[in-house]
Amino acid sequence: MISDIFNSQHEQKIVGSVGIDGTPQRQDSRTYALFPQNDDESNKGGYELSLSEKGWNILEGIGFSSKSENKSENKDEENKESNGENKEKNGEKERDVSGAEKLSEEDQRDVEELKRIDRKVHTHEQAHLSTAGGYARGGAHYDYVTGPDGNRYANSGHVNIDTSPEKSPEATLRKAATVRRAALAPADPSPADRQIAAEAVKMSQEAQKQLAQERTSENEGGGSEQH
Fold first, then answer.
1. Positive or negative CA dihedral for 215, 218, 224, 227?
2. Tell me, what's the pLDDT at 218?
3. How far, in Å, CA of 209 to CA of 197, rounded?
4. Regarding predicted confidence, which is higher, 69 or 15?
5. Mean confidence (pLDDT) of the chain
């Protein structure tokens, strides 16, 4: 915007008592979930799998995880969820591995919207600035807001342009044309931009009148000398 103008789990289990390698068994409390979870109580039959150390190593080598390990992992997940809920209740925010606060989904949406506005504002003001040329007074000026992520984002801006008449009507005409182009340069000129464009048109009209008067005076002066 040109705003300032300078005028100058449940699991089934397989169990047995013979080791995979056929060696005598030692009892091991570990059991392995070999089937999908099933909540049907009638399908929980079976026997417990008791293997030798070598047998357990073979199973572990092909990717099975023990019931005790699964329970531990599930407990960890429950603790994480519980901690997260407690932090939300206390008004605290979770933090990522770097220590930065994790944003909620709502905050993330707000940040994305602020980024979009920031890009739009900078594009808008740069369009004014690049078209105004030497009539711009300084660079673009921005107003900022701080987002949920702690970063600053531009939410408005303006470019100062000199709109005072030049010494000659010809120069004023050129200046008025440039000011009008600069005011309407963005894809979405603001009401203030359109107002500046309208003022530039008036300035151009005044310069045309002045130029016409000067030409009339010159013609009249030339006619008197011939008589």
1. negative
2. 79
3. 19
4. 69
5. 75
69-78, long-range: CB < 8 A, 24+ apart: 70/9, 70/33, 74/9
Q: For 155, which DSSP code?
A: E
- Residue range 18-46, pLDDT digits in tens: 344 444 444 444 444 444 444 555 444 44
Token pair 């059991």 in the structure block, residue: 31
Q: Looking at this protein, which amino acid is placed at residue 142? A: Y
Tokens representing residue 202 in the block: 């008036």
Q: How many helices (H) and strands (E) does the chain have?
A: 5, 4
The total number of residues shown for the chain amounts to: 227
Burial group, residue 183, by CB count within 10 angstroms (0-12, 13-18, 19+): buried
Residue type (1 letter), 69: E
User: Does this model's pTM top 0.85?
Assistant: no
Q: What is the per-residue burial (b if ≥16 Cβ within 10 Å, else e) of 47-74? A: eebbbbeebbeebeeeeeebeeeeeeee
Q: What is the average pLDDT across 163-176?
A: 95
